[in-house]
Amino acid sequence: MNDLVSINGKQVVTTSRNVAEHFEKEHAKVIRSIEAIMSETPKLAFQKMFFETTYKVDGNNKSYKEYLMNRDGFSLLVMGFTGAKALAWKLKYIEAFNAMEKKIAEPKALPDDAQKKLEIQEMRAKAMLINANTRKAKVAAELAENATIESYKNALIATATNTLAGEKVVELPKSESGRKRHELGWYCEKVGRKRTWASQMSKELAKKGITKEDGKTGEFVETIDAGGHQRQNFEWFEDFLLPIVMINFKPEEKA
Question: Which of 57, 122, 172, 246 has the most neighbouring CB atoms within 10 Å?
Fold first, then answer.
């Protein structure tokens, strides 16, 4: 079936010689029928359906005229062909046109240059991610170097290692009782923000999956406000949250 049609430019076509052979017509008569259609069809229309070309016979250097035609041209040409054999060939050609049109509509593999360009873009994206993780790990390592609280130092080292690896390879050290803890406003001040930015910081932490978990990320404590009323606050463990805040909220940024 593949020899019934072929691709010419962006169109699926067959030839006047194929039609003559399969529908048992003289090629000269098929050409006359095509040219009759062309004479009765507006120029812009038939130019899209029929394309004059030439072919050569083996052992003969002389060129002979033939026509290429797309599905529409083929349909017009064979419309008047009747009989069981003609109908059978019409169906075969329709199937061939359908199959070839489906084939050229399928996504094609990218050319080598386009594939290389895509690979380069992916490499750049990976490099940018690696560079970003490296910068974050460097900040954590520098903070660890200057830390005076041992648990804080260990947490920073684990954070730097995991960030650089891009995955959790070191467990964050488990704290002991008596860990230092602070309200979120205290952490805001550590990155040059006002204490009133605590609500926004809480939202940003929640986006990263960091939430209030009693005994894990901090502890709920009861305090007495200026009016003598008892209220409950959540204070975050310093060795847990400070590394995260210092890495994700740059001190030079202002609220």
Answer: 246
